[in-house]
Amino acid sequence: MLTTRIRFCNHLIIPCCSHVLLRKSMDQPRLSWNYNYGTCGRDLNENLLASPEKVAQDQVLAFKTAFWFWTTNVRTSFKSGFGATIRAVNSRECSGGDSTAKAANRIKYFQDYCGKLQVEPGENLTC
């Protein structure tokens, strides 16, 4: 498991302790930024700001946070095409530069999965 510890804290949106380090893990669903941990934790009745590592340690909680993020931030964008979901999940991937390759990679995987499921990927695949 490749894990780095990064500060994702925006005091202007939701208070958080300066000591809170949120995990950025490459092989597990994750939230980023304190406001996601704070509001998701509030909605799931878990104190995720105090114990963000619980998301990586508890598979059921990891699924609940992924489902929470999807229904809260992404679901409404889905009708606008896959590109809108990329923007909802990680808008930085739609800003050009090195991030453009990441968005292109997501689109490639999406098209591959659609092919395996024998469904059309639809229009508006890019950011």
Automatic annotation (TrEMBL):
State the InterPro entries in the record: Glyco_hydro_19_cat (IPR000726), Lysozyme-like_dom_sf (IPR023346)
User: Where does the record place the Glycoside hydrolase family 19 catalytic domain?
Assistant: 30-73
Q: Output this protein's name.
A: Endochitinase CHI
The species this protein belongs to is: Cardamine amara subsp. amara
